[in-house]
Design brief:
- A hairpin with a 2-residue loop joins strand 4 and strand 5.
- Helix content is 38%, strand content 25%.
- The two termini are 36 Å apart.
- The strands form two sheets. Strands 6-7-8-3-9-10 form a six-stranded mixed beta sheet, with helices on both faces. Strands 2-1-4-5 form a four-stranded antiparallel beta sheet, with helices on one face.
- The protein is of the alpha/beta class and 255 residues long.
- It is built from nine helices and ten strands.
- The protein has a domain of 175 residues: P-loop containing nucleotide triphosphate hydrolases (Rossmann fold, 3-Layer(aba) Sandwich).
- Helix 4 crosses helix 5.
- The longest helix has 18 residues.
Length: 255
Amino acid sequence: MKQLLTVEKLNVIYGHGKDSVHAVKDVTFNIKSGEIFGLVGESGCGKSSLGKAIVRLTDPSSGKMVFNGDNVSLLKGKALKDYRQEVQMVFQDPYGSLNPRMKVGNAIVDVLEVHRIGKNKAERRERVSELFDSVGLNREWAWRYPHEFSGGQRQRICIARALALKPDLLVADEPVSALDVSVQAEILQLLGKLRTDRGLAFLFVSHDLAVVRNICDRVAVMYNGEIVEMGDVADVIDHPQHEYTRKLLSAVPSF
């Protein structure tokens, strides 16, 4: 597998001076094409800040990000817009991610229009239907409002919207934590299928080591803004080297 994303000594700092918060500290890692790379840690450790920096929803304070061979750390304007076609994000709250007053299919049509994908509205609506098929939803449901769907269905819609631009990398920020356990399993299966069918790579952000073990190839453990341990998911979970990783594992309930 070729190298898709390389992150080198990335820092994210909010605010200035004595009131500043150093959310991400000198983080270095890479993600390969078609890989599901896990990022795990407690709430507030900097995981989401790192994910948003990769999508460039947050500007990194320093460091370097190379995507498909291009330095994307300082992109602006059209170049940044083009980059966001290749890297998309799925958020934790599927309801908060959707406009309650807009039919879900139109939310996807808007994305296609902004990026000038499709020749006309009919072609874009057909693309929406195809996207609904790909995430296991009835294509006729695309013209309903968000409140008409369950939490799991709404997350599938958010995944469909993220897929609309045919990205190479999806940053999934706690994508199943707001869902029931049975629905979590369905969404994880969907992500695995998308990886297989489309060759998609994922940065899978989670606080749940059990979920990470189920889906990820490699994992990085984040604590207080830093990566303290990284490796193949089985090695890290079965033979943790860092005390913080052992604490995370001890908090996982066993049945």
